[in-house]
Structure prediction request, 225 residues.
Amino acid sequence: MVNKTAWQDLRSTFDPQGITLVAVSKTRPAEDIHALYESGHRDFGENYVQELVEKQQQLPGDIRWHFIGHLQTNKVKQIAPFVQLIHSVDRLKLLAEIDKHAKNSDRMIDVLLQIYIAEEETKFGLDEKEVIHLLDHYAGGSYRNVRIRGVMGMASFSEDEQQVRAEFKRLHDVFRNLQQTYFLGKGYFDICSMGMSGDYKIAVEEGSTMVRIGSLLFGARTPSV
Ligand SMILES: *Cc1c(COP(=O)(O)O)cnc(C)c1O
Prediction:
């Protein structure tokens, strides 16, 4: 099921603001993706490597595939030849592995650093110390086939709007600080990926430039993942 009215509403809100809508299609059949593709949508997000690879083979070649889930180093190779943007770099070892396979595929791969902002213990991501550690290595210049485009984060799954807002605010502060320290004058560091179906309005108010939305477009997932 695809909710095209919701899609049109979201696009007409985001397009004028220059916000990219990533349609999160994990667990959805290829037909649903194709239906949105036919309407003109190109950015789709997936969480699982196997599923992404299968869908990429079945669907049109000009789809921009975003990888948004936790990524194991031994699976990077499978998506390196085609992935548009990896949102979930949360350790140096993964960055090095992406660089290696990007080079083998003769590509430059764009990535985001996943930052830990939620109070919940279960979410992946770098804390502020780890980000600095990673960027100090990156600034050394040995990763030539990977380009850090910005940050990604997930707020707590909470009804408390003030808490969610504070978490997004923190992520946006990290984004701005990194822009002004490690990426000064580098215009490509311009993506702050935050906001999902339940909290994208708050994320946009706090400066999101890319939202990742699944359930609003494709209906509720069962079981919820
Ligand atoms: C599943 C998922 C989304 C989309 O969630 P919805 O609530 O369905 O919009 C966004 N980002 C990440 C990282 C996800 O895993």
